[in-house]
Hints:
The structure holds three protein chains of three kinds.
Chain A: H1 4-24, H2 28-54, H3 58-88
Helix pairs in contact in A: 1-2, 2-3
Chain B: H1 2-26, H2 32-56, E1 62-72, E2 75-84, H3 85-108, H4 115-134, H5 138-156, H6 163-194, H7 199-207, H8 210-218, H9 224-242, H10 251-254, H11 260-269, H12 271-282, H13 288-309, H14 315-335, H15 339-373, H16 395-409, H17 415-433, H18 438-441, H19 447-471, H20 478-482, H21 489-500, H22 505-508, H23 520-524, H24 540-574, H25 580-587, H26 589-595, H27 600-672, H28 680-699
Helix pairs in contact in B: 1-2, 1-4, 2-3, 3-4, 3-11, 3-15, 3-21, 4-5, 5-6, 6-9, 8-9, 9-12, 9-13, 11-15, 12-14, 12-15, 13-14, 13-19, 14-15, 14-17, 14-19, 15-16, 15-17, 15-21, 16-17, 16-19, 16-21, 17-19, 17-24, 19-24
Chain C: H1 2-22, H2 26-46, H3 50-74, H4 90-108, H5 125-133, H6 138-159
Helix pairs in contact in C: 1-2, 2-3
Amino acid sequence: MDHLSSYLVLSAILFSLGLYTVVTRRNAVAILMGVELILNAANINFVAFSKFVTHNLDGHLMSVFIIMLAAAEAAVALAIVLNLYNDRGHINVDEANALKQ
Amino acid sequence: MIKLALFILFLPLFSFVFQIFSFRRFEEKKGEWVSVGIQFVTLILSLVMLGMMLSKSDPNFSIELHQSWLDLGIFKIDLGVYIDNITVIMLVVVALISSLVHLYSTAYMAGDVRFSRYFGFLGIFTFSMNGIVLANSLFMIYIFWELVGLSSYLLIGHWWEKDSAANASKKAFITNRVGDIGMFTGMLIIATVLGTFNFQLIGERIHDGMWAANAGMLFGGIDPHKLLTVAGVLVFMGAVGKSAQFPLHVWLPDAMEGPTPVSALIHAATMVAAGVYLVVRIFPFLTADAMATIAFIGGLTAIYAATIAITQNDIKKVLAYSTVSQLGYMIMALGTGAYVAGFFHLVTHAMFKGALFLASGSVIHAMHHSLHHLNDHDTDPQDMRNMGGLRSKMPITFGVFMVTTAAISGIPLFSGFLSKDAILAGTWTYAANVHDGWLANLHLAWILPVFGFGAAAITAFYMFRLIFMTFYGEAKQPQIFKHIKESPNVMTIPLIVLAILSLFFVFTLPSVNPISDHGWFTTVVQSPESAVTTGPAFDLEHFEHGMHEAHVPAMVTSLLVAGLGILLSVLVYLLNKISAEKLAAKLGALYRGSYNKWYMDEFYINGIIRPFLKGCNAIGRFDLDFYDHYLINGWGRNTKRTSKGVGMADDLIVDGAVNFAGIIFQWLGWTLKFIQTGKIQNYLIFVLIGAALLYVVNVF
Amino acid sequence: MADFIFWVIWALIVASAALVAFGNNLIHSVFALMGTFLGVAGIYIFLNADFLAVTQIVVYVGGILVLLVFGIMLTNQISTAQISQSSVQKGLGLVVVLGVATIILTAVLPHDWVGSTLPMEFADTVTGIGNLLFTDYLILFEIASVLLLGALIGAATLARKEL
Lengths: 101, 700, 163
């Protein structure tokens, strides 16, 4: 707990798991959950560096803004998901491939 | 006691909520009695408070409860209630008039289209008025100040289908806004210098020299004493608006478009007295100059409005101008330092003016029903020229009118005599003794007693004119007269109660001396110490002494002038010894001026509103003609020309290059479209692979 | 003791995040996500970030998680609490993600970030964060407020039936 590396490893694992979720899940809400994991990983890094390396509160500030952003993102993303559901009757991302045309 | 006060404050709000949200369902089931009941409960509670206060009989009694509302570090705003003897008396006045008006309205407003809304608005008005009374800080007063303004607006515009009512409500609201701007500025000045809105703290801090220490520094080296004068006068501007003082009095006569009980409650007894109450609260911080200003405005209003009241024919307009005039009295009293007299007059005036309005409502009600009976919708039920001789038909209303007119005219044995007398003695003392303030410096102090006694004479004259025109003589419209009936009991009982409260002994118990105001009232209400330490302040001790000496001469003079007014009125309107028309013709311009309210409304329209609109139009035209036409559109035209040239070059050179690039990318797209799956997660994988490749290339 | 708790939280985060990533039941995933969020809040406490720990719980657990549950409930015809979920391109995804993880760890771990300085033990971060928010980060703060407003309006507009 007094070593930066333990936090960095944790954050790397969290990031990877989040990334995996985002890459593989079909359900849009599950993808959102992955995004939250990634953001949390970033937050842990910011705060850990602010304690062990920079010794000031800038990292905390960044985390505050990230949390704020995550909230905004979740709200907007869910609105999109609901729209998608209204439109298609499901929220499977791999079938939402209108970009192809 | 605090708990009682909070009950008194919030019960009427409950009445509002009940009436607005659920009354429709109870309309048939006499739902208005819930509101009436609530009002009477608050009346009982406030009477309990009055009893507690009288059993203490301590002039310095006060309790305060406050709660932090907004805390911005160095700047805090507390809200809370402050209760002293004045608060308790005001609570009783508000609860009493409000409950009587509620009772009265059940009959007066019966069958109205917006019956439930009406009672709801009465509730929110009573709530906000109690809020003003209980406020412990300028800020809280300001909140409730705007709330009473709102409820006044809503109630004046109760019959908004009529244009005149809708306009009157807007006029009242906007005119009040002018005063409130001043009040707000004044409040902010005080709060900036002293860091608080709380009355007690303001007093303490001014007394401890914080004003003198901070004001100059914060406001660019201004003399602190001058700044305090400015702040005081600015806060007083709020009172000018709300209490309809010159020159912002124009809204009050128009406000008579509202239902008559509303006029009694809001525009005679309580809300307009809020301005006076505000001056009572800020009294300790007023400098000599500010007090001189206040006294002068009050005195001017008193005589000015009285002269208008002489010539009005609408029964409510006469009473409205009389209210303005009496409010001027109170303000003048406070300005001259006759603190107790001013507040005393507020209370007595609330009783007898409330009664006068309700009695006039009774007359209008009877007229209205008679006209309704005759199917006559054109005759004005409020015009005194259509009345006359009503004495025999409406004996109770007439009796109440007589008692309360005697009270307002300052006839001994009635409450108005005591309070008015104290005010006149106050102005006399001020004129004789004062040497601070600009009025004294200009040697104009004697103008105040002249205003005061003049207004007293005129008041007696026009009030008896009203009585004689309405109740004496022959019926001017026999048709209408035949169907006039006395109003029902729920309307006459409030009248009788208020008439009894206009008798002198109500305010002087336990002593019963018709020419001395000594009694419980003067025991519990005593003038506060002035907190002003900078510059020459008002010498209160000296003043108290002078009041005693001026008492007798002032009383004799006031009786004389009142008698004179009554005598003239009797000669003109009762015995017809002097013809009113001839008098009017002889006085010519004066009569026309008074009849047209000294052209104040015309002055506002032509002097302020029209030029303002003209200015706006001119600016608008400048905007359209010059700015839009030459600058914006001209710029546009030039741009268009330039663009054409550039466009031609564009077509040839740039487009050629772009098309070439396009061809390349078309080919690229055709080849790469096979990895284009449309699935966002595939893309993400590609991105990750790309990023990983970049890293690998960079490192190795 | 503190060490032990730290590693327990560490393990909790990894385990619950793994459940989020690999679990078959969407509802289980959401609850596992709550475990992750709470664990991260615990990590913040070990990092002396008291304000962030509280914010994490309030915003993530109290807000975002509830939103996600709403999202699931509103987009599935729910008859049981079993909402299965499937994944795509598992193999490719696993390979690429493991690659990325390897790159991150190899890039970050060998570097000596700390040197000889001791970790900073913040006593109270709220005052500091408040001061920074209204001084150095004021513009960012204002932009954030505009962004939130935009997100609010955007979400409200998007969620309406007729777009």
